[in-house]
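Lab notes, practical 5.
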Amino acid sequence: MTATTTGQRIARARKRKGWNQAQLADALGYSTSWVSQAERGVLSLDRISVLDRVADVLGVEIVELTGQPYRHSSPELDSGHNGIPALRLALQRALMPHYRDPARAPRALTELRTEIAAAEDLRQAADFTTLGGIMPALVDDVAAALRAAEGSAHDELAALFVRVCHIARVTSDLTGHHDLAWTAVELEVRTAEALGAPAPLAAATWDLCGVWLHAGGDALRSAKAAAVQGIDRLDPHVGRDATLTALWGAMHLRAAVASSRLWDDADVRGHLSEAARVAPASGNTWQTQFNAPNVALHALETAVELGHPKDALGLADKVPVDAMGSTERRTHYWTCRARSLGMANRDDAALDALLAAERLAAPHVHNRPMARELVNDLLHRRTRPSPKLKHLARRMGLNP
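Output from the prediction step:
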């Protein structure tokens, strides 16, 4: 039988390991009843932190349990998946230091700057369909220019290529193609290390943490370690350089998320406090969206992951969502709010929050594992789901 739910995928991984439900329960520190209900879909698996623990114990990547990537039946909802094969090839070509395409004419540096800035706007808008159409050529063009450049132009192009790899990494991760995100971040880190400048290297480290957070399981410890090491490297610059101070704060937010998924409440509070201490009212240093509203959003997200719905709902009311300059961040806010409402069994309000997120960036919501898990939970809690819930489920490719 094909495993189509998170619970069924857990059961498949458990059986492949040769364990019964009691053995998995013992390894997790949960009851056999918990495992049975989780596998049957009776128990809500509404926190990445829980799936991270299950993935770690079973020795699998979290994507095996979430079932990503999710493909959709209509082009307008397929959210950039069609562009992934071409992006994969472009990143593979970029990995080859001596690759040359004689048919590709060199691009002017001014043109590349403009196109990268436009792509960054699309990334913050979570418009992965449009990005899927332009990113392969942009990767090829900047990689080709970087190979041919010398002197100061080479350094600027290296920094631009770090930015391009970031967009490729986010596009890959948020559409569920995590293996491709590894390729993007490998190129990003390699380029930043060769450049040697502290800001691109910190930005690449921040992205590396992001890849590990999406991988889940044992990779969470690597994400936290990399974030802490990045914080230590940037410590001497805090308060002296605005860009590096913002990247230091953004690294604390990475560490806070990793700590929440490792169930370390005290470390979460510590990292959030440090980030809040230096957060500007607005800003988007190296596409990190490090600013006070995003720190408040991280407080909400980590409360959800720690399993504190009452705290999360209180924090949700304090997030200045209208002050967020990123559609992707606003969408994430409404998704986190929906999850906290679902955990509190406020089903109608949870559905309304999910619909608010969908109105902002439908493909982004449709590709989020926890948003999909919440919709499944809402469906199973009701004998007769409402029409708007069933319509949302169908748009997400779920069976109502």
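Observations recorded by the TA: Residues 1-72 form a domain with the 434 Repressor (Amino-terminal Domain) fold (CATH 1.10.260.40). The CA atoms of residues 296 and 319 lie 5 Å apart.
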